[in-house]
Amino acid sequence: MSDHKANEQNSLNILDDLVRKARAKGADAADAVRVQGTSTSVAYRLGEIEEIERSEAHDLGLRVLIGKQQAFVSSNDTDAGVLDALVDRALDMARNMPEDAYCGLADPELLAREFPELDLYDPSTQSAEELTETAKQAEEAALAVSGVTNSEGASASFGHSSIALATSDGFTGSYSSSSHSVGISVIAGEGTGMERDYDYDSKRHLEELRNAADVGRTAGERTVKNINPRKMPSAKVPVIFSNRVSSSIVGHLAGAVSGASVARGTSFLKDHMDKQVFKPEISIIDDPHRRRGAASKPFDGEGVKNSRIDLIEDGVLKNWILNSATAKQLGLQSNGRASRGTSSPPGSSTTNLYMEAGSLSHDDLIKDIKSGLYITSLIGFGVNGVTGDYSRGASGFWIENGEILFPVSELTVAGNLKDMFLNLTPANDLEFKFGTNAPTLRIDGMMVAGT
C-alpha cells in the first residue's frame, strides 16, 4: 500500500472509532472528518529568497446529533484520551443547543458507494532549492522583458493533502490530492506612471505546470502593455471580459443559485427556476469528476454521491447548489454539493464550474465593436446578491473599430446581472485553469463610468 493510501486508511480508522464512541455515549447520529496537508512555498524577489515556508496541518472535526440538536468540536490531537474527551464535550454542547429543524446526516440512499478515480494525487515533491529555482526562472524571464522596471516577487509552491470522512450511517471515504504552482508580479514604468500585472499557473500534477520562464515572460509582456493608460469618458458600450476575469461572472451565478441564498430568499434568482436566464445557446456546468480538475472530488462533504449537473441548460436555470440541509428547506434532494470544514456544519459549494465555449472566436467577438471596453482586471466586490446590481472597478484596453488599441484605467462598469446574463455571448476560448472557468465574454449595453 502506498504511503498516502496508508495515511488515508489510518484516518478512516480514527474517524470510524470516534463515530462509534459518540453513538455509544448517547448520540443519535454522528459524523467526523479529518483534513491533513503539507506544503512548501518559496517567495523570491530581485534575486534573493524572501521567505521559505513549510507547513503541516492535521485537523479533525466531530459532529454529534441528539434529536434536532447538533454540536461541532475539533482538535489536531488524535491521542485516544483527547478523542474521548472530545466526544464528551460534543455531547454536552449538543444537549444545550437550540433545535435545528433541518440538521441531520445525509439520506443514506444518497451516499456514495463507489468512488471514481480522478487522478488528483501526484506523489512528486519539490525541495526548497527546486522551488527557488522555479521562482528564479519566472522572475528572470519577466525582468528580461523590455520596459519592466521592478519585481513585486515570484513564488513557487507544492502541497499534498487528504480528506477522510466517516458517518454513523456507514459511510467511509477518503481521497488525496496535490498541487503545484508558480506565479510572478512585476512593475513597468517609473514614478506615478508605474503599472503592474502578473501571471500564475497551478496544476494537480507537476508535469502539467507551465514552464516558469513562460509564466514570467507573459507577466512581463502584460505589464508593459499597461503603461500610460488613458482615462475615458462615460459611455454605454459593449464590454469584453477577457478569460482572465470572465470566471467572476460565472461565480456571481454560483452565489445566486446557492441553496442557502435561495432558502433565505436573498437571491435575485430565487424565483427563476426553469426560466430563461441566459441566451438559449448557453450552458453552465458543474462537474466534480473532471480528471485532475482543480476542484474535483469523488464524493461531497456529507458522503453523498456527486456527479455532473447542468446549472444552466440552453439558457434555462435547472439546478440549485444543494447540501442536505438546504435541500430539506426547499423540499428537494441534495445533489451532492456539500462542502465541509472541521468546525462548522456542512455548507454548499460548486466544484469544477464552467461555462461551455461558444462558437465565435475571440477576434470575431470583438470585430464589430465600434467603441468598447476590454477588461483584464477587476477591482472591488460591488455586487448586490439580493437585487443583482453590479458595479466594479475595471482596467484593461479600449476597443475601436474592432481593434484593441490602448490601455485604460480608473473605470467602473455597472449593470444588473439579470440583464448582463441575458446579453452575454461567449467566445470559443474556454480553458480549464481553476475551479471556476469561462471563455472570453461579451456583454452588450453596459454602463462604463469614467472621467
Summarize the structure.
With 451 residues, this protein is of the alpha+beta class. 22% of the residues lie in helices and 36% in strands.
Describe this structure as you would to a colleague.
The protein has nine helices and 19 strands. The protein has 451 residues and is α+β, with helices and mostly antiparallel strands. It has two domains: 3-222, 2-Layer Sandwich (PmbA/TldD fold); 229-451, no CATH class. The longest helix is centred in the N-terminal third of the chain and has 22 residues, at 3-24. The chain is globular, with a radius of gyration of 24 Å.
Task: Provide keyphrases for this structure.
alpha+beta; 451 residues; 36% strand; globular; six-stranded antiparallel sheet; PmbA/TldD fold
What is the fold's blueprint, element by element?
Layout: H1 3-24, E1 29-45, E2 48-66, E3 69-75, H2 80-95, H3 128-143, E4 148-167, E5 172-188, E6 195-203, H4 212-225, E7 235-241, H5 247-256, H6 259-264, E8 284-286, E9 309-313, E10 316-317, H7 324-329, E11 338-339, E12 347-348, E13 353-355, H8 362-366, E14 371-379, E15 389-400, E16 403-416, H9 417-422, E17 424-426, E18 436-437, E19 441-449
Parallel strand pairs: 7-14, 13-18
Antiparallel strand pairs: 1-2, 1-4, 2-3, 4-5, 5-6, 7-19, 8-9, 8-13, 9-10, 11-12, 14-15, 15-16, 16-19, 17-19
Helix pairs in contact: 3-4
